[in-house]
## 1
Amino acid sequence: MLTSKNPLPAPARKVYYGYAALALLCMGVGMVSEAYWLAGAPVLGWVVVQAFLDFRPLFWLLLVMIPISTNIILPGGFGTDLPTEPLAIGLTGLLILHAARHWPEYEKKRFGHPIAWLLYAHIGWILFATLYSEGFLVSLKFSLAKLWYLGAYFLLPLLIIKTPRKVTLMVHCILWPLLFVALQTLVRHAAYGFSFAMQHKTMFPFMNEHVSYAGCLATFVPWLFFLSWWLRSRGKSTWWLTLIVLPIWLAAVYFSYTRAAFVALALAGAAFYIIKWRWLKPALGLAIVGALAVVLFFVRDNKYLDYAPDFETTITQERFDNLITATYKLEDISTMERFYRWVAAGHMVPYRPWTGWGPGNFLDHYKGYTVNAFRTYVSDNEGRSGIHSYYLMTLVEQGFPGLFIFLVYIFGALLIGERMYHRQTDPAARNAIMAALLAMLIVDAFNIINDQMETDKVGAQYLLNLAVLVGMGCFTPKDSVSDRELG
């Protein structure tokens, strides 16, 4: 802390006052000339200088921006997330420059970890499938986004988040802006009487729709428990604040009216004990057998045709209790529209079973493979929403090898993570591994009937949790000493 006893050195003071004067000048000129972009020029200048001096503050800034970023559509139909995507691209570029200079210093136990290799194989297949894509430019954009997600949300955290102390900093960076989004959403939603029909209006501009919002909140729940433990274990009197935050958080999840969030959190609660008792391998085996049994049931003798909806009665529900009732009666429009797209996906697979239609290409090709019996009032899909099942999307766009590699990647990460949890002796690192595993399982469950892996709200968190899993699995007490030395 700077005080009168510990002032800035004279050269630093000159830089500080010079920068402040420049910022005020740019702001004044911008307001007078209505060239408002000038007000942001000093900030951009700071970002550029900071990037080359020490890019770690920009990484923490990226994490802060995840909950409050906004999606915009650019000319040409491409969407981007501001400011997270430009930051992720810039940080990935800086990481490449840093690696080119310091590669011998990168720790093989982290960057060459078996979990890391599973992720590399998954992204490698995406790049390979892009070469055979039906829509090369769409797939290229998808693949590039995957690369800067890999750089910013996995490789960079491996370099920076090496200790439980840094994991806690990561938690704080995401917690407080996400709590702000939840609180403002609850307040705005209360003005509508927590109406199910109006809830989508209350999260703009931070979230595009309720699934991303609920997924972002639900994925972070295990970290609230970790933070509570961390504060209590260090005798911090502020730990009780988590007792206030948690019910607010769960209320925000409830009023998102997202069925997948409720199921995913319930599964995470069960998974805590499954991991504790080393039952994860048989549990995942049962899940795979169950999934295959469901697929065979619907595919055999075209049984799926018996579940075609009634076009006239399958409508949008205005109340959440009606939605739950309509779901099991197969009269909920969102559920049946999923069936409409899943059936189309099933018909697409045989035409390109090995390399798929290309990453990101489902939307441009599925309508030629739909079955009219499953058509609903929203099947025109003016909002261009996706397939609503990441596993099925992977199969369609990357073929059977792509789905196999993806399943090996996510299940392998969980099984290796369970083993690291039981081997780690440091309590903080051990609890961080558990929180990361549960957060990843929540995303895995979400992806059964949603496709959130490519969003900065959920997909970024998944990769961050994967990096924490690797980092805390490799953690030793000497890492804390070197972390303090680096500052």
## 2
Amino acid sequence: MHRLFWKLFLTFWLALLAFGGGTLFSASMYLEHLRALHDEAHNKLGFKDRANTAREIAARKGLPGLTAWAEQVESEEVLPILVLDPAGHDLLNRDVSGMALAHLHRHQDVVRAHLPDEQHYHGVTLPDGREYWLVMDTLGVSLKRCLSRPRVIAVPLILATFASILFGLLLAQYLAVPMLRLRRATIAYAAGDLSYRVAPGFGRRRDEVVDLAISLDEMAESLEALLESKRALLRDVSHELRSPLARVQAALGLARQRDGGDEQELALIQHETERLNELIGSILTFSRLDSGLRPLHHRSLELAGLLAEAVESTRVEADPRQIRIDLVCADKGRFEGDPMMLYGAFENVLRNAVRHTPDAGCIKVGLSEVSRPGQRGEIVIHVLDQGPGVPEAMLQDIFKPFVRVDQAHGEGIGLGLAISQRIIQAYRGRIMAENHPNGGLLVSIHLPASLH
């Protein structure tokens, strides 16, 4: 349980232990190295050059110059270089260890016995005759002193920075890559592609993220099977209904050829048969659009002309009820699409408007192109009826299959707007409905001006 938690916890814990232990080990090794070199430090660490520089400065500038030189060396070097008078007092009032005093006395004894050569002479004589001795105090080296010297701490800091960056990048990649895979999966599912699988891409990794990916794959698989069974049911039922419907229509034709048939009843049977045929056709169309089986054939066309054809077709239903349809096209609306599919989408919206507009009413239809700075232009088609409108809570539901506002008196089957929405969405457009302030329902279709 909580495998990802323990991975992160142990990773941070081990990283901190490694960094802290490595720092302490490096510092201790460095200090031991300095102490091991205390007998040879005078030569190997450039002590001879330091002594020569101190003598030159003391000869030219006296005690103030020697003091300034000692302060500069103190601020730069990790290994303290003491400037001691014959009594063992440091020029900068620093603490003097017993080892440093032993070195001082040994040098003094050598000088008293005989004058040493230049390489082993560590004395500095001022112009007034006072004498000072340069002594390296290896016991004065501490971790705090090492960390306070920029030249010493710079390299460890740079290495630690690069190590932390590398560790951070690896950890970020370890956590971010699975999140990106999960995000791509959710985007694919939202777009209708339920065949996308996440877990196979993780290999042998096992933690909570992989468990989530496995659960997501199982959910997608179940949804895919459920939707496919739904689509198959719609297709099978529609096809099965077509056969008895064809036989009913054939029997209706035979009945009309006989004498003495009740024409009113036969007309009712024909009306209901046509309505059933329309329902089955709409179900098949919706099923194909919903499953993506119906291909969209693209060719250049003018939406204004296509909309005008849909309006003329709808007048067949509007004229008997004295409903006027006013069409105003401000632009031609050039578009790349399937004329049959778009024609069907426009006709469904127009027939819905006619169905809900009272007798002697008016329907306003318009087309225009809208462009905004920095954005792709849109072709906007609006259809405004004079019906009672739609309850605000149902403005989105009317685009769902088999949803009707007036279940009792509505003659529609509740698939027209759903089919229109699928067609418009196939062209990366959108369709929406809103109640107009002056009454009626306003349906707006937005299509991108260019698909390229």
## 3
Amino acid sequence: MIPTVGTPALWAGFVALVVALLLLDLGIFHRRDRVLSVGAALGWTAVWAALSLAFGAFVWWRFGEDRAAEYLAGYVIEQSLSIDNLFVFLLLFGSFGVPPPLQHRVLHWGILTAIVLRAAMILAGTALVARFTWILYGFGAFLIFTGGKLLLRGEEAEEADLEGNRAFRLLRRLVPATHRFHGRHFVVVEAGRRVATPLLLCLVMVELSDVVFALDSVPAVFGVTLDPFIVFTSNIFAILGLRSLFFALARMVDRFHRLEHGVALVLLFVGGKMVASRWVEIGRWTSLGVVVALLAGAVAASIAWPAADRAGPGAPPAGPGA
């Protein structure tokens, strides 16, 4: 059994907090389908970051600086890895031709499903680590492989070849679908039968991409902490701000073209830390500092050596006040 600071009361309280935040965000502030301007998206991203840091302060007050360092490192890693996933969202929206106002609706439901899927994966990962401690070395090797592959992929963006995607082809065979959008509806009735709209197909592909993304992010957070409560809370706070972060970065992703290299180096560092954990001990604050330094260096390199302008596929247009 892996020791955890999360008592049943804390787990229940955190879940209640997440439900309350989702009701406020998705049910009141953003219940209408619209395109956030860059300014508004940055504002909401700052709000979610502030809430995440406030929870980190609570962890520090309640459990000490070591647990707080683990939480902050997990949160930063999760946010940094989400950058690559946001670009996949852009490719999917462009491939399906999802209108910018409806992208908000896809991400709305995507967040809800991602929270449930992430919780299940974290619980499964915790159970595996508790039963087979050697699996951490497997996690580390997988992260090194993924980071190396990402680092060597090059500057060119991958095109979303949906017709060549096995999951998409299987989805089209299993789910009757129409090629036309019907407003904000995921399912409509055509010729007397119920069919899926491209919006539903896009949502399913977004969810599948998040599952693939979680295969990297969840093991990466296990590289800085084995406490399931810290892993879960850092993951969930990162996910809660994902929609705002998408609209904030959708039109700026090409300005930070070196971020992908920074994310790859983070995966290599965390994976190497996990593999070498038996012989080399790296402190919690040192891990956090290395992760932040790698990402900051990638941002600085992007600014110092800008890439040629490229229009991100599916990027929503600037809204009022952008």
## 4
Amino acid sequence: MGTITGPPAQLDRDGVNNLLIKAFPLADPNSLALAREVGPGWVLVVRPYAGERSLRPGGVISGPNLMEIADLAAYTLVLAHIGEQLMAVTSSLTMNFLRGAKPGDIHARAEMLRLGRRIAVCDVRIWTESPDRPAAQATVTYAIPSA
């Protein structure tokens, strides 16, 4: 994954994480995927390993868990770049499973492909072992509410 330059983020890591905690008040902050890094046009989020309950038969992270982090990484990216517009919603999520995700913390790097007034399109790469061994890739589109 090369260096991405994109629109400047309106929120830094702490700002977007505080916003996520506000958006999901019932979620355990220790298990919520939070931003580790925020840059122009990208974010890196990490969800701590949730133990055996996140595994499917075969001992790998389940598809629904990977889809959840893909969506949350895209939401985090959108919020970091548009600010406090919590009503941005997923309008499309296409997931490609590339290999089994071994048990461990789930990392997702989301990059902004397009940020318009009404829509944001994001590319999300997901891994547990190494960014050089992606387990999944998603394209996620968010609808942005009018101001």
